[in-house]
Amino acid sequence: MFGISNRLASGKSRIGRVLVGFMVLGFLCLFVAGLAAAWAMRENQRHTDSVAHTYEVEVALDRVSVLVERGETTRRGFLLTGNQVYRDNYDRYTRDLPPAMARVTTLTSDNPRQRANVADLRTRLSDLLALRTRSFAMIDAGRRSAALIAFAEEASSQRLLGIRARMSAMLGEERRLLAIRDIDQRRSLQLFYTVLSIAGAILLVVAIVSLLTILRYTRDLASSRDQLNRLNGTLEEQVAERTADLSRANEEIQRFAYIVSHDLRSPLVNVMGFTAELDSATVPLGELIDRVEERAPDLLTNDMRLAAREDLPEAIKFIRTSTQKMDRLINAILKLSREGRRVIAPEPLDIAAIADTAIAAMRQVIDDRGATVTVERPMPTLNSDRFAVEQILSNLVENATKYLQPGRPGRITVSATRMRERVVIAVADNGRGIDPRDHQRIFDLFRRSGAQDQPGEGIGLAHVRALAYRLGGTIDVASRLGEGATFRLNLPATFQNSQDSNA
């Protein structure tokens, strides 16, 4: 008997260390995978911006090309026919050309090669426009024949070919840059998938080893249980001794949960404290950035500015959100472990009065959510632990008000019936309901059902079930989606302490 207890104690310590280590490793893998995903998204966005920029340059160059070609066509039409429509169109295309070139200049200002190409293109366009201006000046002076002769002798076609070649070179430069960026994106994606694969493999190994560890511990527990069953047919003293050992083992398991949660809290507090210090440090850092930006802006890059004003505060906010969630989960585990050690104190209870008290405590929340809670009377008497029953009813009523069906006034009913030596307390609502596949999992710790649009960590119903078990009862649910839910708490009419009955 003592050997079983010793094995449980040593196994608890060993498995606790293993599981905590694997939990930390898994969290690190998830953190690295998250960083890799954020980096890949940033790289993908940069590539998308580059592609969009290339298309903008192409469109701008096409616009300049169209204006130049149409300007030459209308000039020739006016020289040959003297039709004023050609002259008007030429003037319009000529007016539109400078804004189009300004657009090209703006889009390509970040590339030294393109700036050189733009400068050469402007020179060629200036020479071409000068020729066109001389042609129209001759015509305006009544020298059409001289204008036609000059037109036949000028090298405008060669100038157009040079302009086209320069714009083709600019398009080629943009496509060259796009090809380089495509290669960089493929490399970044390959690195991202490599990181994800490694993280996934580590997580898989962690999951398998954790599962094997738990299975081994479960087999040890099963073996201990079998030994207890084999010893069950011996003397009455041995039965009492085994019962005492089992009670101690249960207490050790509860202490184990408490110790694990307590040990997790210590590094979590450190993380929260250092995060607060980092958050405080962002204020003087921001002030420093402001002073540098005011007094020496050439020392400050855009990446530095974004890192100080956006990236760092956003990262601190993410860490704080994660640590706060972990803190709530640890508090829930500690609460459950403490509840398991609390001494049950049975007394005669008025279930209706307890329900009224629970409803009054959350009256403001019930009214804010537009719900109506009814307590059906009369109710049978119950001899059990007041604090535990109050907590169960409070959790069930609060859950019913939390998951109401939108557009339908909430109606919640609390009732109780006597069934032989047991009392069944029911909390029924007309809310959104629960998928039948989730009827069991909602009572598991940290498990929830349906849309996760309400605050909570999946702790309340697990706590309710733990309390029901301690009172010698059970809890179940009957529900269908869209048709509300009814939670049934089945308790002995008179609580019997196992130690008292053994005595």
TrEMBL record:
Q: Which GO terms describe its molecular function?
A: phosphorelay response regulator activity; phosphorelay sensor kinase activity; protein kinase activator activity
Q: Does the keyword Transferase apply?
A: yes
CDD domains linked: HisKA (cd00082), HK9-like_sensor (cd19410)
Please list which residues make up the signal peptide: none
Any one Pfam family match given in the protein's UniProt record, by short name: CHASE3
Give the transmembrane region(s): 20-40, 191-215
- What are the entry keywords? Coiled coil, Kinase, Membrane, Phosphoprotein, Transferase, Transmembrane, Transmembrane helix
Q: Name one GO biological process term.
A: osmosensory signaling via phosphorelay pathway
EC number(s) on file: 2.7.13.3
Which ranges of the sequence are coiled-coil? Answer: 221-252
Which PROSITE patterns does the protein's record reference?
HIS_KIN
Tell me which InterPro entries the record gives.
Answer: BphY/WalK/GraS-like, CHASE3, HATPase_C_sf, HATPase_dom, His_kinase_dom, HisK_dim/P_dom, HisK_dim/P_sf, Sig_transdc_His_kin-like_C
Q: Which reaction does it catalyse?
A: ATP + protein L-histidine = ADP + protein N-phospho-L-histidine
Q: Which residues form the Histidine kinase domain?
A: 259-495
Q: From the Swiss-Prot or TrEMBL record, give the protein name.
A: histidine kinase
Organism listed in the record: Sphingomonas gellani
